[in-house]
Glycosyl transferase group 1
Amino acid sequence: MKIAQVAPLWERVPPLTYGGTELVVSQLTDELVRRGHEVTLFASGDSQTLACLEAVCPHAIRLDPDIKDYTVYEMLEISQVYERAAEFDLIHSHIGLAVLAIASRVKTPTIHTLHGNFTPENSKIFQLYHKQPYISISNAQRQLDLNYLRTVYNGIDVEKYSFFAQPQEPSYLAFLGRLSPEKGPHHAIAVAKQTGLPLKIAGKIDANDRSFFEREIAPQIDGKHIEYIGEVNRAQKIELLGNASVTLFPITWDEPFGLVMVESMATGTPVIGLNRGSVPEVISPGKSGFICNTIEEMVAAIPQALELNRQTCREYVEQHFGIAQMVDGYEAAYQELLTNRIAQNGRILSQNLALS
């Protein structure tokens, strides 16, 4: 197949530090190339890929202080993609609602992976274009009545995640994610304080989360019991998660997937998460972690999590969240989309012949 992959421009593909969507796009794109597909990746110019790279901007926008308006570059990217739509069998968009209007007006089909959540505002646009083909990344994400082809869980290259048979001593808890209210770093701190275990926090602070960080997180960081180590690259992330005794995932929103859970379990570290969004689909209770309804339950689950088999955690990821499983799902969705399109075109042709 000739496939266009359309990535966000905010981070490079793959991301240097934070960027779950961009990591998934990178792994999907490269594996499709390995499987013999002709793939063109539309992304920032500093991206690294096995596919043919087409760039609108030279660097990831978040890291380019000269770029002030993200929307301009997103529109340029969309224009570039759809001006070349006839060159592809299908277009795979990872950038959300921005492409919906134009995608409905070209013959080349676009499949949309939903990497975010629905809001009262964006739901209006998705509902307007509900007939377009969508991929959900968890069943919990399916909160609108859309044309879902299937659910495809995000996958990782497990071999690139070192396995840690034993956590570091002394024991510590880990939190990795944006330092925002919905990701729950304040809850992770509460769990750490109640258990007496140290907590290591890593992640970026977006501009709109700065006041939350300064108000709720910064005053509790002492560099000993509660430590903030900033943004981390891939190697640092693996070390942080793999050396931890438990990774905390105390979200306060309906997380569409939560790649950090899979990354942690791949290193052997179990995850304790709050029962929101995709968490029940990602964690296997008593096998790779525990699912809790309250902060108190998370605290109570720590001793049990410490007893879980770390090899079992990794094997669980290998069996359910590897790149092969993810790309198999996408290839099946692509084939279904193109088969349905051929059948639809055949029906239209038959109807036209009958009328002539």
